[in-house]
Automatic annotation (TrEMBL):
Organism from which the protein derives: Pseudomonas trivialis
Matching SUPFAM superfamilies: Sigma2 domain of RNA polymerase sigma factors, Sigma3 and sigma4 domains of RNA polymerase sigma factors
KW Protein biosynthesis (keyword) present: no
Keywords from the named record: Sigma factor, Transcription, Transcription regulation
NCBIfam families according to UniProt: PRK11924.1-1 (NF008889), sigma70-ECF (TIGR02937)
Gene Ontology molecular functions: DNA binding; sigma factor activity
Superkingdom to which the source organism belongs: Bacteria
Annotated ranges, domain RNA polymerase sigma factor 70 region 4 type: 111-163
Family stated for the protein in its record: Belongs to the sigma-70 factor family. ECF subfamily.
Name under which the protein is recorded: RNA polymerase sigma factor
Gene3D superfamilies noted in UniProt: 1.10.1740.10, Winged helix-like DNA-binding domain superfamily/Winged helix DNA-binding domain (1.10.10.10)
Record keyword Transcription regulation present: yes
GO annotation, biological process: DNA-templated transcription initiation
């Protein structure tokens, strides 16, 4: 076992003991809820623990703040997507409603798609969703987005490549 691996738990433990309460309190002030703050702080430390080396982190609190901000962003995106899904579900006819298990699986799939499409332009995301969810042709998408059909093909290529890359990482 390398000395870097031996030292990492000790350093992580030291950072946790010194900075967990600080981060949780900072987040509690920001979120207004101790429980949500502790969840975000815990997730932040979990992500910190996945870094290959902690010795290079000169300012652990700055790193934790950055990680916590990313976690908060992901949480807000998830909540917004969940809210949109639940609104769409509420407006669907009664016979279309799914079981809670199916709803959970569908929401998880939507979150995975959202994550996969992150970083694409809004038009590329829209083109992908129009194609995959609404079954629109490239020509129909082009009219809807005000671009050429060849541009839609480029958007789709980017989106599908992004999905492939995310799936390959999993």
């Amino acid at each position: 076992m390398s000395s870097a691996l031996i030292g990492k738990p000790d350093l992580l433990t030291e950072i946790f003991r010194r900075d967990y309460r600080w981060l949780a309190e900072r987040l509690r002030y920001r979120l207004g809820c101790r429980f949500n703050a502790e969840d975000v702080a815990s997730e932040s430390f979990l992500q910190l623990s996945t870094l290959s080396t902690l010795e290079g982190v000169r300012e652990p609190r700055a790193m934790l703040t950055t990680i916590a901000n990313r976690v908060l962003y992901e949480v807000s995106r998830r909540k917004a997507l969940e809210k949109a899904y639940l609104q769409a579900l509420a407006s669907a006819p009664e016979h279309v409603h799914t079981s809670p298990e199916e709803q959970h699986l569908l929401l998880e799939s939507l979150l995975a798609i959202d994550k996969a499409l992150d970083g694409l332009s809004s038009k590329a995301r829209q083109a992908f969703l129009y194609s995959q969810l609404d079954g629109m042709t490239y020509a129909q998408i082009a009219v809807k987005l005000g671009v050429s059909a060849s541009m839609v093909r480029q958007y789709m290529t980017k989106a599908l490549t992004q999905c492939y890359l995310v799936a390959a990482q999993s």
